[in-house]
Amino acid sequence: MGEFYGDAYSDNTAMGGSGVSSGGGFQVNNLNPALWVRNRFTTLDVGLIGQYKSIASGNLRQGNAGGNLAYLSLSFPITTKWVIGGSLKPYSFVDYENTFTRSVAGSPAVAAYTVSGKGGVNKASLVNSFQIGRYVSLGLESSYFFGNIRRSSDVLLFVDGVPADYMVSLNERNTYSDVAFRAGGTVKIPIRKENKMNLNLGGTYSFSTSLNATKTTSFELTQGSFPVVDPDTLENNLSGSMQVPEQYQVGASLEWPFKMIISLDYSHQTWSKYRGFGNVNENLKDVNRLHFGMEYLPRFTSLNYFDLVRYRIGFSTGNTPYVLGKTKINDTNISLGFTFPMGRGYSNFLSVALVGGATGD
Predict the structure, then answer these.
(1) Which residues contact 139 (CB under 8 A, 6 or more apart)?
(2) Which of 2, 92, 164, 217 is the residue whose CA sits 20 to 30 A from 66?
């Protein structure tokens, strides 16, 4: 399915992806559907993402940059204890192109191979979030996954360094669609009088789902961009499925309302149960991650603008689903973020999250 974006919006991204147990009423906390009920006013949250990667293997190094819509969400209260929300966000993305050459055995020709992939899977969600009494909240997210991923392998022959104009192409298109569910809950425990300090506990569970999938594979032989023979469809809308594994995340946080939040989360996803198209076992490993973050608001009642800015730092570490030989591929990052009040009466907010880290050695 490609690389995954994760569920965190800008605020929680800046806190190392933590925050499953706590949330404010200014922006949507998408880590836990139970926290949407904290938004007492209609809230529109829009996010953009940009990234730059430096990819290294031995002495080889390559840069890659890209950007996308990160999320679009809207929450609105039905009553003081019931909030409904909707969101649209990319769930995963595929974007790569690799080129390499090999000699053709028994001839002076050289073959240039180009392997590429584009596309991704999107996620449209409906959230219902409820306040149960003073200290407990529950939520359910119902999501519809949809999208397609296209992969191609092209081979171009060179003779004496000159392209022979013949290109062989194998193209594959996978289309996905289905529904999935995620449930969450939080508990707020006052540990100082007059709500001056709270211990928050929270957790979410994403149910395993089998995405419906269809695959179409075609073969082409061209000369100078013109077909030598008619394209041959090897597989046409072949039906199958892809098993996306369950995931859970639990966390705790200390909250000084309108002052500071310190949060620590743990997440686990059973990627060993993942099955690709045709029930293929991809030999992935379970993912375990720790997330830590802090948010600080200098003075909520101040007239000084920078006393109203919320400052965040975070840290996250864990393994990826991938293994090379017997070596696990780990991923660690640190983050920094700010939320700036904007507009008349400071009723709007601009959040910025900066994340830097390394995957692998």
Answers:
(1) 32, 33, 34, 35, 36, 37, 127, 128, 129, 130, 183, 184, 185
(2) 217
Tell whether pTM > 0.70: yes
Find the CATH number of the domain harbouring 31.
2.40.160.60
Domain containing 60 equals 3-359
Sign of CA pseudo-dihedral 16, 21, 26, 31: positive
- Could you tell me whether strands 247-256 and 348-359 are parallel, antiparallel, or unpaired per DSSP bridges? unpaired
The three-class DSSP label of residue 305 is: helix
Give the total number of structural domains in the chain: 1
Which DSSP string do the residues of 315-347 spell out, in sequence order?
EEEEEEEEEETTEEEEEEEEEEEEEEEESGGG-
- Please provide the distance, in angstroms rounded to a whole number, between the alpha carbons at the two ends of the chain: 24
Do 17 and 316 meet the contact criterion of CB atoms below 8 Å apart? yes
Q: Specify whether the CB–CB gap between 334 and 353 falls below 8 A.
A: no
Using an 8 Å Cβ cutoff, are 116 and 152 in contact?
A: yes
